């Protein structure tokens, strides 16, 4: 099903069969004791199995055997960080330099992680991500694009957006939207409210998100396009998505851990690691996001991985670039939702692996015989402290700096090969 | 000439450095009420001193104070420069708006450079909220915020409080603080650091603060800072004891907030007629860069018994002298000032 032969020139072959025993398999229906056998880079058997003669054997010692995470919408291919976080595939945003707006660049980045990491490019919806002229989406699909994205920006021209959605619907590509009405947001670096007011930061009303979501839902309904809002962070926008889903529209929502872990209080003292896009919201919105994860309004949790060095972050708050390095902390933050009983373990892995794979149309993100052996061995209780100075990512800009947490990947296989 | 008799407030404050346990003066938000009063009381001696014919003191002799202004300023820069010089410091002005910053040097690198020159105090103005705290976190000497974006301008709030105190005393009203007084701040609240610091300072000193602005220039959620908001100026003025007018900061506006200065004056300009709605002896203040005929009429700005605008400027020098004196006491080894100090840095 993959557009590119997995065992081609760039392939890395699993030398001997591996059987992982004594684990807890994270399956769609729940978590069951068992093991997994990996042969020739694929899942050969699953469940209550025993190793065959000649297999390499590994005792999971009760750890979780989970699908490798599929991270939907990252801004950099940062393998050490992804591997640390148990991520074996990521959908790459088109906001690269230069942008992914022509087939050759899409083809190049689609190869760029192999063999131990797979990148699924999201094609720029418009040329240069300028928001007006349609890019060659059909040709980029042939080159490996798994979706279309508006990038970090909202497309303000509703006519251009409708034509984009109609075109993407014809090509059966999901359109990944950034939902902030640019007229309302302007140069905002914060959400309007007490915090932004006390700090004197340029701010925009949280309703900027709901306005953008409302328009794009209306256009999705007209065009029949599949629309994914990469980050839905406000109560009112979540309610719009809830209603759209109830009407049967192909609308999905995502979020990153920052918006269910933190509120705009984290921006006190002008910490630029908490300068995000969309900006952090008041506590009431954070609670609404957690509720939406619990009731299924949110389909995908992604890292939004966007490592930014001091040249982008050691600046006054409003002058700093938005974005956070999130790949290493994605799993641990999602596991906090399990401990808080917002979701169960199966649903957690649906949010961070299966659902994003479904959106991308790739056979990944679940443990199933015949699928690529992308496997993460996880100790969900293992305690550790997030330290921005000791991260695998190319920059340590995490708003969770200094926070103690639990849950670590102890081993990872991509296509049956240990990474 | 080195010893200035202190006003008699010994015993009102914790002794020595405990009276002001901060290394920097970044904002009013970090200060306790008694720390605000301490700075005001410290400034009193300099008010008297500044009225003398000869105004030289060696308190800061040998110390280097750098005024690093990343945003243009005339009055605040001059006020800090005079304050430093009257205390005997070597004062250097860095007009960062025309310096290496234009050549692409980052703010942090500029801060490290200033620090390497071994300044004993750095006064910073910057157009971005939080920038002064960022610089403070990278240097080893006291930092004074002379205005950061739309965030804080603590010496302005302190000098306003001092000017108000003096005006009230001149009328024979005991005025240690402003308990029960109604103070209205009217103008571009959204972009104003003067308003934010003013709200924090005035409410800490007991005043009832009213803010008045057209809705688009009123920051969301500012009621949470303990103020009452108005969009109708006449309603805000009713019963006001003090009226502080702010100018429209068009340089910080993205998009249009006001149809025209003429229309703004019609709705929000402080005229003689409007002033009559306030308390009979209401005082008029303005932090500076007045746009006569827009937010305030000349005849109001120049009212001898009501306008304390020039007194505000006078008090500015005294407050800045007090701030420079207090913040450098640890480095100068003033007895009792060697204890721990709160730098408040997060990184």
Protein model, in words:
The complex is a heterodimer of chains A (419) and B (347). Chain A has helices at residues 79-84, 103-111, 137-142, 158-171, 182-185, 194-199, 207-223, 235-246, 257-261, 283-295, 310-313, 330-339, 345-360, and strands spanning 18-27, 30-39, 42-47, 56-59, 64-67, 69-74, 87-92, 118-124, 147-149, 175-177, 190-191, 203-204, 227-229, 251-255, 300-301, 375-385, 404-414, 417-418. Chain A is an alpha/beta fold. Chain A has a single domain, classed as Metal-dependent hydrolases (TIM Barrel, Alpha-Beta Barrel), CATH 3.20.20. In chain A, helix 4 (158-171) links the parallel strand 9 (147-149) and strand 10. Chain B is built from 12 helices and 9 strands. Chain B has a 5-stranded parallel beta sheet. A 4-stranded parallel beta sheet of chain B has the order 2-1-3-4. In chain B, helix 1 (33-50) crosses helix 11 (309-327), helix 5 crosses helix 6 and helix 5 (154-170) crosses helix 11 (309-327). Chain B is globular and about 55 Å long. The N and C termini of chain B lie far apart (42 Å). Classes of the chains: A alpha/beta (419), B alpha/beta (347). At the A-B interface, helix 6 of A face helix 4 of B.
